[in-house]
Amino acid sequence: MTKTVEFGKDLTGLEGLSVDQISTILDVAEPFKEISERPIKKVPVLRGKTIVNLFYEPSTRTRVSFEFAEKRLSADTVNISGSGSSIVKGESLVDTARNLEAMRIDMVVIRHGSSGAARFLADRIPSNVINAGDGQHEHPTQGLLDMLTIRDHMGGIEGRRVCIVGDILHSRVARSNIYGLTKLGADVAVCGPPTLIPHGIEELGVQVFKRVEEAIEWAEVLNVLRLQLERMKAGYIPSLREYNRFFGISVARLEKAPRDILILHPGPMNRGVEIDSHVADGPHSVILRQVTNGVAIRMAVLYLLAGGSPERAEAAKMENRS
Amino acid sequence: MTKTVEFGKDLTGLEGLSVDQISTILDVAEPFKEISERPIKKVPVLRGKTIVNLFYEPSTRTRVSFEFAEKRLSADTVNISGSGSSIVKGESLVDTARNLEAMRIDMVVIRHGSSGAARFLADRIPSNVINAGDGQHEHPTQGLLDMLTIRDHMGGIEGRRVCIVGDILHSRVARSNIYGLTKLGADVAVCGPPTLIPHGIEELGVQVFKRVEEAIEWAEVLNVLRLQLERMKAGYIPSLREYNRFFGISVARLEKAPRDILILHPGPMNRGVEIDSHVADGPHSVILRQVTNGVAIRMAVLYLLAGGSPERAEAAKMENRS
Amino acid sequence: MTKTVEFGKDLTGLEGLSVDQISTILDVAEPFKEISERPIKKVPVLRGKTIVNLFYEPSTRTRVSFEFAEKRLSADTVNISGSGSSIVKGESLVDTARNLEAMRIDMVVIRHGSSGAARFLADRIPSNVINAGDGQHEHPTQGLLDMLTIRDHMGGIEGRRVCIVGDILHSRVARSNIYGLTKLGADVAVCGPPTLIPHGIEELGVQVFKRVEEAIEWAEVLNVLRLQLERMKAGYIPSLREYNRFFGISVARLEKAPRDILILHPGPMNRGVEIDSHVADGPHSVILRQVTNGVAIRMAVLYLLAGGSPERAEAAKMENRS
Q1: Does the N-terminal peptide bond of residue C268 adopt cis geometry, omega within 30 degrees of 0?
Q2: Is the pLDDT of residue A151 over 50?
Q3: A47 — contact with chain B (CB < 8 Å)?
Q4: What backbone phi and psi angles, to 5 degrees, belong to B236?
């Protein structure tokens, strides 16, 4: 853990982070893991700070993970959700943001359907902005928790062969994984139907497998993406059955691998579509570990953006007044 | 209050509880009642504990009662509601539960439309699970608060004649009342239209009155159930007016009773259907007392499942740091 | 700040408040402003108090402002929203209120579509009731925050010429502004299309301008109301374009004024309809300051209704245990 690593005001994506910044977040997450294992899961690190979880798209899982992270750091949280309807009577994102800012909030966690929404917001308000997924752009805390989970189980990230399987075209999770993993020196590949692999993806430093068998032959880690069921209607894939037949991760397929393969999935799973239950619940699945690490990663990001010192994270977790 | 009473991990119903366990919950609720009467309604009993209120069916009243109980015990709470839509993008209950567990929650309060959902969940996660109503199965904290209210006003439960009036067939409240009250030695009866009385209900140790006049003649306590208005559409009753005419609890009917009858209703009421306003707001109604007792019962259940000692409940309520 | 000013149980409107009461709320808001500027935005003034935000109409902005005010005073808050659907299974407002009361809440903040709902509630429960907007009646905390903002920027309210522009007929904001501002000695006018000016409004002590140019010629402050877009469908105005052409506040219009005019808007804005962006974001706009003041006003109202002493507000803000 270097002493000189500094963080900007926001976390909108992994593309713009340095290797040191990413490593520091992963390192700082380590001491925060332990807080969630205590009988009293609370430290006063963000006491009196006001955080808004501004979710234009529904995402119970990510919202709840952030909310636990915030509450375990003793922040005051307010949820704003706009599922289905306009948030503040059709107000623009920037007016909503300025209004929240005028109420003197400290941080905004934003999930939005448009790529770039988090950056747009971050440039317009002085509060810290954390991207909880923006369109098809990035979902940086998901990328970080995936990396932390890989590091936990593989002893490191550098040189590891990680293949992301599924709908790469529409996936902000894929993008954050590619940026983060390649920066830390992993060998990254993607695999999916040709309609769901973006043209020119190789320029991001990844190789492409057309057949999942090749990916399994090569990889040490598979990060299996959720197949958005609406892709079928939109004509990207012929049917869920076809998708499962050609790209579904099954025990039979994994048994042909020359080694044990670590299985990740960002959830929620479509069991029997992109992943079979025997794999999801099997001995090499770390899917629930990802969820546990997600809370620690979010605590680390909140702590660092709030100005917490990387070196003092270990000490911060020991405080327990409030 | 016996010292040897132990509680399992969960509260999914009253059917499986012992007499001692039920009595202990009622006893422990007593000291917790007083907390809600204080200027500062907060004790640090569950500080740093994480509780999820997972409501697949909408129920503002029950959710709010649990939320107050949790906050008055200083727990950190997160609400997840799935009214109308799938909760986590169509994820199964067990995947949702495992994910919450992976975030290291301490307790789940679950309301679900399927009978057995609470038990299903309780068997799959190590967190404490509290059933806040599952399908037509049980609603144990409602049963307990009804019992506490009867005990408060009648000086005890044993030997008391309690008749539950209404749609027994579909009612989880009826079921939890029957299990709890019969265990504590009450004489329990049910009364309602033949279409809404389950066959073989007598095997649970209750008698059946076909006419509400007979029930009123017999009972010391009436627990009047809410008539779900959709029952009419489904053909169980001919009309609300007919229902009111034959089973509605009115002052005129109660005046023919040989004694004052204590009136309970789990709410929300359909005034003028199953109960008339003069009864609901009358001198023998303890309907609002039930609501007050509901918070105390939920505090007691949360306290006991979290490992609180029945003997120390009186002391716990005196703590007031944090 | 007089020592003898007392407050009733509720704040349902500004119509019934005395000059001293209004002045005291504005004065008490002053020390509370500073709390939101601190790194740790929390004082223990309402610790252990239970507040319900009961929003029958959606209003993210007002709800969030109250929620921040409550949390910064350390209250425990529960949100109940009934957007689109009945709140507690079609229960009446009074039954909902009695139930909340039975759970021993301390305060209710209510937003409701019917004029008089807040008063109705206030008369039926012993908890403090704060009107967060009831039909076309009043929105007193909005009126107060508007007045605080005018006072901040004009050095006082007495003798200031304030014109409210827009849909006066349907606006609870207009009504609270008129009551409050006239009590404190401002000269108040209204301006809008004849269909949207209530008959006999002059009896409230305001003058009416038919043309916005006349209003701009006269006023030192413009409070520009949101045009509810549904007014067009209902035939009150021919089109948004027409409205903007005749009543929209633009830079060109303001440049013709004999003086700088302070611009207020209660939000959310329809940019390009009732107000142009260059005005909204211009040097004389205090729209975001209104939002900031809104939190302080709500803290002051919560503090005073909870029995806080006006003289001790300055001391209260210094407390920082908890």
Answers
A1: yes
A2: yes
A3: no
A4: -70, -30
Report whether B143 contacts B180 (CB < 8 A): yes
B148 closest CA partner among B314, B301, B41: B301
* Model confidence at B298: pLDDT above 60: yes
- The answer to whether the Cβ–Cβ distance between B67 and C48 falls below 8 Å is no
Among A40, A292, A295, the residue with its CB nearest the CB of B48 is A40
In tens, the pLDDT along C188-214 reads 999 999 999 999 999 999 999 999 999
Note the pLDDT tens digit of each residue in B5-17.
999 999 999 999 9
Q: What is the pLDDT of residue C92?
A: 85
Q: Kindly give the residue spans of alpha helices, DSSP state H, lying in chain A.
A: 19-35, 60-72, 93-102, 117-122, 140-154, 172-183, 212-218, 230-233, 240-247, 251-255, 277-280, 287-305, 313-316
For residue A53, what are the β-bridge partners?
A: A79, A109
Is pLDDT at C55 greater than 90 in this prediction?
yes
CA distance B112 to chain A (A): 17
pTM for the whole structure: 0.94
- Closest by CA position to A263, among listed A250, A272, A245: A250
Could you tell me the CA-to-CA distances from B93 to A304, B97, B116, C267 in Å, in that order? 34, 6, 12, 41
Q: Do A91 and C67 touch (CB under 8 A)?
A: no
Count the residues in chain B.
Answer: 322
Confidence of residue A89 (pLDDT cuts 50, 70, 90): low
Q: How far is CA B59 from the centre of its chain?
A: 13
For residues B203-226, one letter each, b for 16 or more C-beta atoms within 10 angstroms of the residue's C-beta and e for the rest, the string is eeebbbbeebeebbebbbbbbbbb
Report d(CA C63, CA C79) in Å as an integer: 9
Show the DSSP H helices in chain C as ranges.
19-35, 60-72, 93-102, 117-122, 140-154, 172-183, 212-218, 230-233, 240-247, 251-255, 277-280, 287-305, 313-316
Closest residue by Cα to residue B243 from B229, B263, B257: B229
**Residue with tokens 């901040």, as numbered in its chain:** C152
Q: How far are the Cα atoms of A41, A48, B178, B192, C192 from residue B211, in angstroms, in the given order?
A: 55, 60, 19, 7, 64
Residue of A46, A47, A59, A60 to mutate, interface with B, max B Cβ within 10 Å: A60
What pLDDT score was predicted for residue C245? Answer: 96
**Residue B271: burial class (beta carbons within 10 Å; 0-12, 13-18, 19+):** middle
* Amino acid sitting at position B60: T
Q: What is the ipTM of this complex?
A: 0.91
Return the SS3 of C119.
helix
CA distance A223 to A221: 7
Smallest Cα–Cα separation from B32: which of B173, B156, B148? B148
Would you place residue A88 in the very low, low, confident or very high pLDDT band (cuts 50, 70, 90)?
low
Backbone angles phi, psi at A189, to 5 degrees: -130, 160
Distance of CA B16 to the CA centre of its chain: 15
Mean pLDDT on B285-302: 98
Token pair of B75 as six digits: 């727990």
pLDDT tens by residue, C20-37: 999 999 999 999 999 999
